[in-house]
Amino acid sequence: MTLGTGKESKMTDGFIEEQEIDIAETSISLEEAANERKRRLEEMRERMLQENDGEESGSSSKSMKLTFRNYESQNDLGDKRDDVDLFAVEKEIADQLIDTQDTRAVEQIDITTLAPRKIDWDLKRDVAERLEKLERRTERAIAQLIRERLKAGKTELADAVNSGAYSELQPDD
Predict the structure, then answer these.
(1) Could you report how far apart the first and last alpha carbons of the chain are, in Å?
(2) For residue range 73-95, what is the model confidence (pLDDT) as tens digits?
(3) In the record, which residues are listed under signal peptide (predicted)?
(4) What's the pLDDT tens digit per position in 99-131?
């Protein structure tokens, strides 16, 4: 596209075709759209003014009460409002002093909280959940092995259960 000439270039089948864009037509259509928008805005303003005029005539009979926002409000008599409790800090301090005067020792002291712990107590605590899961899996596996032996018919129930318990007691080599 070349600037300033109002012409547009297109490439089709190896040939360059130039088409003129009618700038005058596009500017006229834009002007018409702008004028239409202005007309609608003016109509809307007129409607809003008519609605506001109706409201103002009804509210003019009422006395308007001003609200003051730059300083503390006062009641109708002109006296300042006393909403502040001046002794709040003193009450708070008195409560804290009463709490500090109670110097009784704690009735029950748990010895386990005072006794020193083993070095690896935190590691055992962290691993405990994983060990519970593994213990459950182990129990399921033992039960499954007992069921398989009973289905095979090679051993009796008491022997199968005892062999499972015996394998639990044996240390892993």
Answers:
(1) 86
(2) 655 555 665 666 778 888 899 98
(3) none
(4) 887 666 656 677 777 777 788 888 888 899 999
C-alpha radius of gyration, the chain, whole number: 47
DSSP classification of residue 154:
S
Token pair for residue 108? Answer: 């029950």
**Facing residues of 158 across strands?**
none
d(CA 162, CA 38): 98
Distance CA 100, CA 119 (A): 37
Place of tokens 């009450």: 91
Pairing mode of beta strands 15-20, 7-12: antiparallel
The model's confidence at residue 17, banded by pLDDT at 50, 70 and 90, is very low
- CB atoms near residue 155 (< 10 Å): 14
- pTM, to two decimals: 0.27
